[in-house]
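Researcher: I've been going back and forth with a colleague about how Helix-turn-helix domain-containing protein might be arranged in three dimensions. Neither of us has a model we trust, so I'd like an independent prediction. The organism is Duganella guangzhouensis, in case that matters for your notes. Sequence below.
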Amino acid sequence: MMGDEICIMVQNGAMQTESLTPDAARAALGAAIADPFFSEGLFDALPDVVFFVKDVAGRYMVVNQTLVQRCGQRHKSALIGRTPAEVFSHPFGQTYQAQDMAVLAGDADIEDQLELHLYPNRDPGWCLTRKHALRAADGSIIGLTGISRDLAMADKKNPAYRKVAAAVNVIHEQYGQPLQLPELARIANMSVAQIERYFLRIFHLTPRQMIIQTRVDAASRLLNGDASVAEIAQACGYGDHSAFTRQFKATTGLTPSQYRQVAAGRKSEA
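Model: Here is an independent structure prediction for Helix-turn-helix domain-containing protein. You can compare it with whatever you and your colleague have in mind.
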């Protein structure tokens, strides 16, 4: 048998094709799988990962148990057949649904978008979200699938952690100031390419994503007070009020004013 070939033998006559190339074997295996959603059970075992599949109307068709729990539900049936706008409170659901519609329209897939998620009965948590369009054989979009991963703890055992931590301290202490990647690299005694690589390995974030995370965290705290949105934008390193609002909404799904209203509502309920 040639090195680029593979032999598949399945008992009971299900598949007995021999000498398939890897691509052909992949196609044959995919066609033979009885349940295309076999991965649902695997994702049920991951408490730090939300998983879902939606149809072309943006309705949940497959969800894992983590998503069910974070929506404040007990059973998957509470989500199946419903859209985010029907599952999440306003305006979160509308924001998630608009994001889905953009993917379903073929605008672009979403790759590791940093998001601050606010689930019912759960403290805010940072996630990295991916959403990919699902396509039929003719290339038409028939749905989407996605995951949202909780940001993992830093890998403090990495040999480069001490160097990178020096740059992280600057981000946390000076987030209100302009922060340039070359300067952060100099502080860590690394090249720009090195610091980007080690940030991803240690924190699962790029330096830019960590800057955004730190600034939005600070803004979220300040929005619980009396400072104006313009003052908060300035304090968090945004000289342009509109740029702050765009970034905050892209990350949380809410404008700063909407977030302030939601936070005030949570306070009154507590």
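Researcher: What would you highlight for our discussion?
Model: I'd start with this: The chain has three domains: 1-34, 39-150, 161-269. After that, consider the following. Residues 1-34 form one domain.
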